[in-house]
Amino acid sequence: MIVDTNALLIPGEFGVDIFEELERLGYEHIIVPKAVLSELDRLRRRPNLKGKEKRAANIGYSLVLKYVQEEHDGCMVTINKEEEREEEESVGRERERDVDELIVKMALKHKAAVLTSDEPLRRKLSEAGIATVYLRGKSRLEEK
């Protein structure tokens, strides 16, 4: 299971434990691409990000670090560094597209499903035959 940036905002926005939900769905190994963690870190450090969004970004970032550092029954989280490369000069939407493309490539390579709420990314993954997991009813994760 590969996790997208927006999925890491779910715990702070909706109070859903995504790691527990993924375990319920049978996913035991969860990969957070380093680019996703970096994107989440940039998001949480944005000076104009306030309130609920800032809290959600901080919670998501903290959860990843917590799960990586601690052992949990049935759920292993790793930060994937295989895509490590020079940071692109591009910013904003360009960078988001790069992360989306990276997620698609990783999902194909590892034959892994992807947790994301990003509709264009879900469509692209579906067209490539990759299973997706998404938030359903603001209370649980569902696989498609």
Write the layout of secondary structure elements.
Elements: E1 2-3, H1 10-14, H2 18-24, E2 29-33, H3 34-45, H4 51-69, E3 76-80, H5 93-110, E4 114-115, H6 119-127, E5 132-136, E6 140-143
Parallel strand pairs: 1-4, 2-3, 4-5
Antiparallel strand pairs: 5-6
Helix pairs in contact: 3-4
Short note summarizing the structure:
The protein is 49% helix and 16% strand. A hairpin with a 3-residue loop joins strand 5 (132-136) and strand 6.
- The 3D shape can be described as globular
Compute the separation of the termini in Å.
Answer: 13 Å
In CATH, the homologous superfamily goes by the name 5'-nuclease
Q: Regarding CATH, which class?
A: Alpha Beta
Quaternary organization? single chain
Strand content: 15-25%
Helix count? 6
Q: Uncertain runs with pLDDT below 50, 5 residues or more?
A: 84-94
* Biggest beta sheet attributes: 4 strands, mixed
Query: How many DSSP-defined strands?
Result: 6
**If classified by CATH, what would the architecture be?**
3-Layer(aba) Sandwich
CATH topology: Rossmann fold
How many domains, in number, for the residues? Answer: 1
Radius of gyration equals 14 Å
User: What is the percent of helical residues?
Assistant: 40-55%
- The SSE string, one letter per element, is EHHEHHEHEHEE
What strand line-up does the widest sheet have?
1-4-5-6
Provide the residue-averaged pLDDT. Answer: 84
Main structural class: alpha/beta
